[in-house]
Protein: Substrate-binding domain-containing protein
Organism: Amycolatopsis pithecellobii
Amino acid sequence: MATINDVAHLAGVSTATVSRALNGKSTVDPALAERVRSAADELGYQPNGPARNLRRRETAVFALIISDVENPFFTAIARGVEDTAQTAGYSVVLCNSDENPEKERRYIDVALQERVAGVVLSPTGASPSIERLRRGGTPVVAVDRPLIACDQVLVDSRRAAREATEHLIAAGYTRIGCIGGPPGVRTADDRVAGYRDALHGRSPRLERRAEYRTTGGRQAARDLLADSPDALLVANSSMAIGVLEVLAEAGLRPGRDVGVVAFDDAPWTTLINPSLTVVAQPAREIGAEAARLLLARIAEPAHPPVVTILGAHLIPRGSTRH
Amino acid sequence: MATINDVAHLAGVSTATVSRALNGKSTVDPALAERVRSAADELGYQPNGPARNLRRRETAVFALIISDVENPFFTAIARGVEDTAQTAGYSVVLCNSDENPEKERRYIDVALQERVAGVVLSPTGASPSIERLRRGGTPVVAVDRPLIACDQVLVDSRRAAREATEHLIAAGYTRIGCIGGPPGVRTADDRVAGYRDALHGRSPRLERRAEYRTTGGRQAARDLLADSPDALLVANSSMAIGVLEVLAEAGLRPGRDVGVVAFDDAPWTTLINPSLTVVAQPAREIGAEAARLLLARIAEPAHPPVVTILGAHLIPRGSTRH
DNA sequence: ATGAAAGCGCTAACAA
DNA sequence: TTGTTAGCGCTTTCAT
């Protein structure tokens, strides 16, 4: 593969001039610059990133470490991060931690070693590995789940869960169950807390917690059905799939036999009949804001951490009409 | 951030020994190695990736460039690639080309510049930028869509589309429409071709082509409805969402008023009523095989290109019962 | 405006 | 087994 030296020889200039020309420095003669560019073209020259990054001590790449690539909520965040980053000249590489702290740690190390310009992270838990990022001085912004002493973009999950539950109460449901995510995951805990906030004895507490996945939803729903709830608050869209499957098996129809509201406005929620009442989170905006915070922090590393809290809104649909 | 020099000083050895110890070379005294490791730990040492990659002239990273992160088919491929790559000690960074040749080109350049060990690519079209990868000698494997003179993992889309259409014919439908993906995209063209293969005059050709997205499906379906089809073959799951929406608007019930079969067994396809007949593609296996091919090519760069064709299978469900 | 040369942090010959 | 040293390809002073 051609190096800067080859280009310099072909263009009959020094490597310094090649570097300057290709990086658009103003101090280079237009004619020379042109000669350099065509030489580079002819050789199919691609600057050696590692060498450049080593010398510059920085890269134009963000790492985005999310807990589940197969969850539309996170892919929507990815789109938001990407759009904003691209505009500012950064590329985004996506790493899937798969809700697995070990994989998260691996990817944080990769990000650190590759000296990425910044990291957007949806933390899988207490994540001791964050400490390394901090020590390395790499800018980090947490999304969806909090991370102390760090820029963050969060959603007011608790309030959203409370409102969703109040919506169920207002619709006349009296035995409202909650299918929550795994204990210890902040969004999961918050949603359960919001559910409790709303009850005030107007419904018994019927809670089950499980993994943020379809199988988790399935298990929790099977189990909770024993308590014969007349409505269900489900903590995310992957779980909702499992819950709806179980309901169908049991011959229970959403909206008629049992009210259902779930977090995340996944693309399929309007296809089912009746369509699913959801709590829509501004996923794309979360990503965009995270990228903005990262850019701001790069520009001003000493700035105190900023926490952005975005709202979620209920979209009432058929599954909660009594 | 600590460098190898700092570690060497703290451990009282040379940088060479540090490098050897940390990379697990056998030729280093266990006691020394231990001293080095604890020194590295104490300093929170993270090897400088750019420097290492520059020197080694290789990285342990694969780039996976897919055309749409929000499409479950591609995220499933991502999982397959990742699982296999991780096992072999490689990390995978995911780049979203968004069906946009310009973004694809950008990410190919990034991959090239960062000197990744290999690229898995779902090409967005003729992709002239592949030429650069080839010139750079970077191993590439194409997934889902063909790429000349290159390892490839494909699905026999044409056959699958033919079988799906035959299934519709066997079910007694006589005006079978085809909602195809964008012309020029190979999988899209193949699926339309398979549809035609099956017809033999047993149904008029009712074809519409659009983007591989929900809006594309919506447009094409609205348009095609004018030809009053009694069944529909839909080219992917994102389009299927749009198609089903339009059907619902028009008061047409899948499986009763109009038969529907779509490519991709998305998670929601069993939730709708009746559930959706689909052509299931082995997405995860596609990814895993792609990663295997990449590893094989790295081990043996001169080996002639291998093309793996995987099968897809029809899963008949309620939406095609007459 | 251009070139010469130093050096980013690491690994791999080569010596010892 | 360990250390010394050259150099990977680039950018950036410092001269000119």
Observations:
- The longest helix of chain B spans residues 283-299.
- The domain at 56-155+283-312 of chain B is CATH 3.40.50.2300 (Rossmann fold).
- Chain B has a mean pLDDT of 95.
- Residues 13-17, 20, 27-29, 32, 51, 53-57 of chain B lie near DNA strand D (CB under 10 Å from a C1').
